[in-house]
Fold this protein.
Amino acid sequence: MIYLTLFLEFLKMGALTFGGGYAMIPFIEETVISHGWMSTEQLIDFIAVSESTPGAFAVNISTYIGISVGGVFGACCATLGLVLPPFVITLIIAKFYARYRENIVVRGVMLGLKSTVVGLIGATVVSVGFEILFGEHMTTAVFGSANFYITLLIFAVMLFLLLYRKLSPVIIVLLSAAAGIVFGYTGVIKI
Amino acid sequence: MKKNLTLGLQLFLTFLKIGLVTFGGGYAMIPIIEREVTEKRRWLTGEELLDVVAISESTPGPIAICAASFVGYRTAGVFGAFCSTFGVVLPSFVIICLIAMVLDAFDQFAVVRYAFFGIRAGVLALLVKAVVSMFKKAPKNLPAYLIMAASFVAVAVFSANVLVVILSSAGIGLGFALICRKRGHEL
């Protein structure tokens, strides 16, 4: 029952990830790989599309995975699952806000969740980095290929622009695409 | 009743607009929510909007959803929350469905494959940036650093289950908070 699976998987993510979009990625990666829904490479493309279209990143990527796994109804199930927990929880908290923030249980749980997400996304960087640089079959042959060094170059330039020039993610995606097209048509990279 | 319907429609349209014009969601939405909700509509004061941001940060799920639900609820109750949340989700949903339908057809073009070659490297940079900004927002104390390191090693090296890691981290954070309170320290 693919629709129920989509709904429940995204319900879990909606209920357990804090700090929005990117905090979801480690969860999403594990989910799509374990169900065999897509490869890490496809997921990376999905991240890029979700980042460069309007709206909340988390909603975009949930819809995208939902539609590619189970059509438009699958997209409905995934998005509904994602939205439901924060919707319900926010309604409850809107009533008891002041007491909630000071609550020792909430503060303790928050400390754990805000910290773990740093490590989790760090782990995603490692798996996505390996995938992009070495491909599925990790071999040292890539060191002789221009693709490897061009990927590193684009990565380094984009990271610099993000951290020190504060460019928006949409601009980063567009610039990276332009770089890929230029290196592709000049024959530097081989695909 | 009629007043409520009008308010619901206004909430829906306002958040539809917010969902349509912001990219990346999350914090990028806050300035636009501020302009639409506190300056144009006066549904919330500036101070209440700060509460919205704080609540969104400390509740699970996307910030956009929390903010929409909160503003809608404060303005017109549960019905209002439904209208604004539906509004903020709708543009994403429609646009992504359209893109998913056409993107597969483009995959055969060299230009698209070249573009995605570059984009993958760019996405890696976005992920590293996410680690940096999450680190800045995380607590700065020894237990927090230990949880970060342990979560990283558990998943990157031992392929641990993400759900298990998240729940254990919440438990450890809670245990630490309770010990601190027992000893009379500030968390």
User: Anything to note?
Assistant: Residues 57-102 of chain A form the longest helix (46 residues). Chain A touches chain B through 108 residues (CB under 8 Å). Chain A has a mean pLDDT of 87. Residues 2-138 of chain A form one domain.
